[in-house]
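Look at one record.

>
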Amino acid sequence: MQFLFEQIREAFRLLRYDPQLHPLIGRTLHLALESTVIALAIGLLPAYLIGSRHARWARWAHTLANAGLGLPPVAVGVLLIPMLPGQTPWGGNWVGTMNGMIYAQTLLALPIIVALGATAIRGLPEGLIDQARACGASGWRLAALAFREARIGVLTAVIYALGAAIAEVGAVTVIGGNNLNVTTTLSSEILNDIQGHGFTAFYGDGLPPSLEHAMVVLVLLLILASILTTVQQWGKLRRRRQRRRQAHAALPGPTGDGVVAAGS
């Protein structure tokens, strides 16, 4: 454990003082954030439809989304290469660029958003959505209510998707080509380090580059997970504080009504 803590402290030092890490971190966060945002934009509506319906098609769709959680990233990357067109609709190429990497990672993140989002909505109190429908809610208002009540589960899906994108090395390497200073991310740079130095670097003096980058990946995951978990739990903590203040205000103080009633 002491060794692990020392390496995490070294990773924090590298985040501040190693200029070579800055573009790697920038590309990694670009890939993770953009692919997750696109997956959210595409996947929230299917997640709501699947989670709020009890029809047979919704159960089959939920099963399919759950199966998508186990997609092998390398196989996805290999299958996508012959399917990608030469140019993107907004300009630029697909293969060997960040555009293609984001596209591949979006496909991997989409089942996460749909499956976990639908599960969160299905876990809402029985009859909540039906009661809202009976009160006249429909369309986007009903969906907003469902996602507001299921926000903890939806944010869990976001944390999962971001973590998977930061740690992804299979599909993004196949699609992006792992071109230095163009499509290399932190995780693919770890692969480059191991291919360039081999595992014998672990037995030499000093910290091997692959372990340095692995620690930085771990630190990024910890930072993002901590931020999103704080956002996830903020509403619950706020309601708990409100209940405590209400309970405290209801207690008789030293000069409160209870003391007066006892004296009279």
Observations:
- The longest helix spans residues 209-250.
- DSSP finds twelve helices and no strands in the chain.
